[in-house]
Amino acid sequence: MSEKTLFQAIKGDHEEMYEFYDQYKRARERGDVPAQERWVRQLTWEVARHAVGEEIVVYPLMEKHLGGKGVQLADHDREEHQHIKESLYKLESLAPGSAEYHSLLDQMMVSLHHHNDDEEIKDLPLLEPVIGEEASKEAALSFKKTKKLVPTRAHPSMPNKPPFETLIGLLEAPIDKIKDWFASFPAEEEMKEAKEELKTRGHDAAACRTGEEH
Ligand SMILES: [Fe+2]
Ligand SMILES: [Fe+2]
């Protein structure tokens, strides 16, 4: 078994964010505005899913196992998330490719980098030795699972699909509401069974259509 520890999972995501930002910067150098928009969207989704995963899985662990210090660190982290979410929210109202857009995104990345570094340098090195490697790996799995439930990207059909009508809806949703939403998904066992069944399913649309009128 070589599952990732929580630190590795979180760190991996952070790296992904920087990669998307690098891609955005390259698109900016080329003057390719649609590509800039695409990378920002990708980055924003990654940040949103990551933040949801941390708020549901990681920060409560810090509060539970690190006493007053954990509560303090988690509160600080949530505040920084809020700040980052507000920047992303504001970004939506700016024109991609404009100077304001670039500068807000650059500022947001500075805050994000600082925040991510705090998690890597302060939070996780405190939490992991207290909970131990097994619990860290378990937490990494639930973090991954939680993230998976949030769509990977803003799909064109998203605007009509509750509860996260838009990306902003996801960013603004109260964490308790998101928790309830996650709880309404099939359990892992049910999911396993469904996945097994999916392997052998093959709906033949054309055959089913036979005899039907057009
Ligand atoms: Fe975070
Ligand atoms: Fe993080």
Automatic annotation (TrEMBL):
Gene3D superfamilies named in the record: nmb1532 protein domain like
Pfam family, one: Hemerythrin
Domain Hemerythrin-like: 7-127
Region (Disordered): 193-214
Entry-linked InterPro entries: Hemerythrin-like
Name this protein carries in UniProt: Hemerythrin-like domain-containing protein
Organism of provenance: Obba rivulosa
